[in-house]
Structure formats: C-alpha cells, structure tokens
Amino acid sequence: MGATVPKFGWTMGAVGADGEPDTALYQQMIADAELCAKLDYDAAWVVEQHFSDF
C-alpha cells in the first residue's frame, strides 16, 4: 500500500479589512474550508501571521 498524495489543496488565512473583528475573519475562513471540503479538495493549509498588528 502506498501513501495517499493530495490531488488538490488550498491555502487560507484570517486576513481582512482594517478593523474587521478577528471572529469574523475566522468565521469566514471556516466557511471557506467547509465549502472546499464539499468540493472534494484534499488538503487545507492555514497560514500563520507573526509580528503583525492585526
């Protein structure tokens, strides 16, 4: 048995307009992830932000 290799993936991050609440950003990111799962994407990558003021 060989390893399963993802065929399609997406990258997402909680980034939005200045002043937009973090909760709204993460809710949108989760909604996007749920849509991509329904569309049969195989992998998800969430970027991290360091040293930023948002």
**What is the molecular shape?**
elongated
Number of helices: 1
Order of helices and strands: EHE
Biggest β-sheet, characterized? 2 strands, parallel
Mean pLDDT across the residues is 80
Q: Major sheet: order of its strands?
A: 1-2
Radius of gyration: 14 Å
Ranges with pLDDT <50 over ≥5 residues?
none
Which secondary-structure class do the elements indicate? Answer: alpha+beta
What does this structure look like?
With 54 residues, the chain is α+β, with helices and mostly antiparallel strands. It has one helix and two strands; from the N terminus they run βαβ. It has a two-stranded parallel ribbon with strand order 1-2. Helix 1 links the parallel strand 1 and strand 2. The termini are far apart. 0% of the residues are buried.
Keywords summarizing the entry:
54 residues, alpha+beta
Short description:
This protein has one helix and two strands; from the N terminus they run βαβ. It is of the alpha+beta class and 54 residues long.
Write the layout of secondary structure elements.
Elements: E1 9-12, H1 22-38, E2 43-46
Parallel strand pairs: 1-2
